[in-house]
Every structure is written in structure tokens, then in C-alpha cells.
Amino acid sequence: MIKPRQLVPDFSVDLLDGTTWTLSDQSPENFTMVVVYRGYHCPLCNVYLNKLNKIADELKAKGVTVLVTSSDTPERAKKAQQDWGLDKLALSSGLRIEDARALGLYVSQGIGVTSVGVEEPELFAEPGLFMIKPDQTLYFADIQTMPFLRPDLSSLLANLDFILAKGYPARGEA
């Protein structure tokens, strides 16, 4: 488990625009937010990522760079981007299972076709949200074993003002 104020393991993923995104190459004003979703097969991910898409401009204005990733193939990630209308998010594919585990994410085996009629991949990472400081240390993490609960994005957005104004330190490192 990565503790707050510890270095987040470096990893790379392929963005849908054909470029490669690497954590250590990021230089956000305040935070890099990495949101890991289960994949195209997950209807709850669709709902959650649409909420994130709606606040993407506000996050950017607060100095937060956002990456959305999964262990999906590029084809499935493109379908998610198009079918779910994710026009404001940097979406990627190909999060390696080894990298997901290094981040502390839970990994599940596919169990068939979901309620929306899409086959689950053989292996995939369960959801996680990471706020990473410019020095690549962990500020905040929310890691789930199931798709049903996610951090409230409106609260996170509202609390960013307090965090930044007060220089509130990362907590949970003891």
C-alpha cells in the first residue's frame, strides 16, 4: 500500500490520441488526478466518468491535471469515450495489471456479460482515484473493491479550495 507523502510508482499508459502518458513526465500546477475505472463493461463507470467530465474544466482551473485509465484495450477505451460522451477527459487504455497492483488497486477476474451486455475482460483493475502532488508523492487515494461506491467529486472539488488555500498536508502517513 502506498502511504500519503510516499512516491507513487511510475507507470505509463497509451492515450487515445496515440501518445504515451507517463506519471513522472507530468508537471501539474497542483495535482495530477489519476482515475482508474473498471472498463467499458461497467455501467457505473459511465455514470461516474460523466460526473468527472462535467467538472473537468473546474479541475483544470484549480491546477489539477486529470488522467482517466483502465486496463481496457484501445478499442474498448475508444468506445467508452465515444459512447459515454467523455469529451473533456484525457482517456487512456492499457493500464498493465502489474502497474494496477503496484498502485494498490484490486484486480478482478471477468465473470461474463454485464447488465449492459458487454463481456468483462479476463482481468481488470477495480476503481481507484489518486491525487498526486507535482513531486510524484501521494496526497490522497480512494481504492475500491467493487464498482458501487466512489468518492464524491463535488465534495472533492469544493475541498480543493481549502486544501490549496491552507496548504493542508497529506494525511494518513503514520
Helix tally?
A: 4
Low-confidence stretches: none
**Rg calc:** 15 Å
Q: What general form does the structure show?
A: globular
Numbering strands along the chain, what is their spatial order in the largest sheet?
A: 2-1-5-4-3-8-9
Helical proportion? Answer: 25-40%
Structure description:
- The chain is α+β, with helices and mostly antiparallel strands and 174 residues long.
- Helix content is 28%, strand content 23%.
- The protein has a 7-stranded mixed sheet, with helices on one face.
- The longest helix has 19 residues.
- The protein is globular and about 45 Å long.
Summary of the model, kept short:
The chain is an alpha+beta fold and 174 residues long. It is built from 4 helices and 9 strands; from the N terminus they run βββαβαβαββββα.
Keywords for this entry:
174 residues, single chain, 7-stranded mixed beta sheet, 28% helix, two-stranded antiparallel ribbon, 4 helices, alpha+beta
